[in-house]
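dumping this here before i forget
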Amino acid sequence: MTSFLLAIQFLTVIPLRVKNVNERKIARSMLYFPLAGLLIGMALVGLNAVLIALHFYELPAAIILVVALAALTGGMHLDGLSDTFDGLMSGRSREKCLEIMRDPHSGAMGVISIVCAVLLKTGLVFSLPPQDKPAALIFMCVLSRWSLVEAMFFFPYARSEGKAKTFTAHMSRRIFFMATGVTLFIAIMLWQLNGLLLFMLAGFSAWLFSKLISRKIGGITGDTLGAVCELNELTILFFIIAGKAFIK
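structure:
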């Protein structure tokens, strides 16, 4: 139970103030990242139902959902996206990239990446068919949080120390496969074979994003994990919308 609460505390702004925390419990919290994503997705689904009941138009409703997601997560992943793009797009050496990513001030590329991510996510949420929106919101949150576990399992940590070091240092096959099993179960329960396909596409895109980042800086960091989460949210929504268009 403690590890589950830690997962919620790490991935949201909910102040649970979990006590008696140690590195083992922190590492075990990764098992519950998909479930934390499920709770985030369900919160968005509930908000979407309220907006529908209040007869909001689809565009302002999409804006509210995207803003609510950023608020619920404390903008943590958007901040990581900004720092990652500032570093990777600087054209500097590995060491300099890592130094830039630690700078608390956002550069031009970081600001642009946030603006683009928010605009793209709003447009994609707006484009979701109304009947598919609840499942799509849950898929987006569950698969993108699982992608954090995937990235930490397949790629080394790029720094000698950092906030995400505890997670990567204690990552294991058991943690990865259990988190993957939970995610796969949710995907199949929601959309059967289409859910399985979406799970595979999300897994590949997260691996690809992490691989490209690792080639530049020699691994992953807490910032790049946030970037992977944001990019995978966009990719998942895109796959859902493109898949529906293809089926038609």
